[in-house]
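Data deposition worksheet. Section B asks for the primary sequence of the deposited chain exactly as it was used as input, without tags or linkers unless they were present during the calculation. Section C holds the resulting structure in token form. Section D is free text for depositor observations; keep each observation to a single sentence. Incomplete worksheets are returned to the depositor.
Section A, Depositor: J.P.
Section B:
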Amino acid sequence: MNLEFTPSQSSLRDEVRALLEQRCDSQAARRAEAGEPGYDPELWAEFGRRGWLGLPVPSARGGAGGSCVELALVGEELGRAACPLPWQTGALQAGAALGALGGASERTRLAAALRGELRLSFALAEPDSPVDPAGVRLEAAPSADRWELRGVKRFVGFAHSAEAFLALARSAAGVGLFWVEAGAPGLERVRLDSIAADAPCELRFDGAPAELLGADGGALPEIGTLLDRAAVALCAELAGGARAALDYALDYVRRRQQFGRAIGSFQAIRHRAADMLMQADAARCAAYEAATRLDAGLPAELHVAMAQVTCTHAAQRVTAAAHQMMGGVGFYADRDLQLWYRRARAAAPLLGAEGQRLERVAKALELEAG
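Section C:
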């Protein structure tokens, strides 16, 4: 695996980092969390103006045609900055799905979404199927000239301020993708609490009118691919947050004096820091290995699964260890460390439960052995 980025990829990383340093420091992140949408709409619109919201959509369908590595680069920088934006649900999932399955009639919607003017969210998780699109049970039934949806979607990120949803639902033909207006009759949004303050909702459908995008029952092949790309970008985001949390803790232990010297000079701290660094770097390598294989069209099931396990473990363990290195002071609300810790905890379930992630690795091993 070659972790040397192309000049255009390096330029993208540098531009995203510079913008986030200018517009989303830790205080701005807190203000965005506390606002009604849960993020800064102006920053989101700036992502649109710079063409970054179009990265998940092929150029033939009106997007920027970004590679998975480029999606991961943006994710890593968002993780470093602990910046709350609907990058996952609004761009990598909803925007990509609309670009993949939306026809010519949806081009106007897609263009508005890629400019950051139309707020979308993706509805996947259900009570018995958190992340597996094949396990969707939301019912879709034809009625006159439209479809009606019945069931529940959970943990729909930044849904409170979304103007429309792209929801996976099951009809007699299989799993399809449906467009649902946020104000549709028969749709109720129930705000949920989140440790990451990403304004998730539970969506309750009771005959809500919907539009089918693409073929009836034909969503899974396209959706499976884009969800893998989104998962890898989230893995990179977790890796970026883990490294930022480590750097934050290292700055503290270099300055904190005890017994006449910096606590970073103590062996227990030094060894803990070394272990944290190895976990954070392993996570980053796992994310970019999966992204590189997806871009090259190589078998990537095992590598995507390993990235999900490695990056969730690293993000949770490194941020928790950083708190221990700082003697618990990092939990204070005015300390930035809790931003990365909270995001690591909230993002992990988006990649499935621990058992699901490990089972995916195990199944991939069986496939390769066969």
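Section D:
The CA atoms of residues 112 and 118 lie 5 Å apart.
The longest helix spans residues 220-255.
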